[in-house]
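Troubleshooting log. The previous run stalled partway through. Resubmitting the same two chains, unchanged.
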Amino acid sequence: DAGVIQSPRHEVTEMGQEVTLRCKPISGHNSLFWYRQTMMRGLELLIYFNNNVPIDDSGMPEDRFSAKMPNASFSTLKIQPSEPRDSAVYFCASRATDTQYFGPGTRLTVL
Amino acid sequence: AQSVTQPDIHITVSEGASLELRCNYSYGATPYLFWYVQSPGQGLQLLLKYFSGDTLVQGIKGFEAEFKRSQSSFNLRKPSVHWSDAAEYFCAVGAPGGSYIPTFGRGTSLIVHP
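Second attempt completed without errors. Output:
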């Protein structure tokens, strides 16, 4: 299995621009998680999907952030408009039963 | 609510020395427990996990961890550290059940001196 796939691996954008991060979970996994990692706050859960349905989005920082999972094999995290404080590494993880598997992350830099 | 504490932000060891990374959790019953490793520029990789049964758990890369209910701890150990073990280590806890949401510690950065 290819594991969790994230794209792009690196994204540099300017403040105010829209950013879309993509994730392909491991085939057969029915839960998907988006995390943000920063030095200041560590690893934060942003949103959790189960069977393509958002279950817990209490970690989404504000309305500028949105996430979708249109099908079992694809999810997006969108930031619009982006701000410098959104600079972080964003991880996607998927799970079938009891163990999460993480993707390699997308390093986002907002100038 | 569940929580997890990794008391050590940084740990420095010499190559070949033994290692123990501490993890303490807060949860009313026996939780799911995990250790992950993150190498620079990489995602988190699962080292080992504990759900029930034998309290000493073997993982990949020669790591093991011991669940101690009386101390609410799940410390990670390795008898002889290699330079390639230098990385960030995360402990995580989750309430048992198929839809659990894990809580991660802040991580411990392991530095290995030659």
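Takeaways: Chain B has no helices and twelve strands. The mean pLDDT of chain B is 94.
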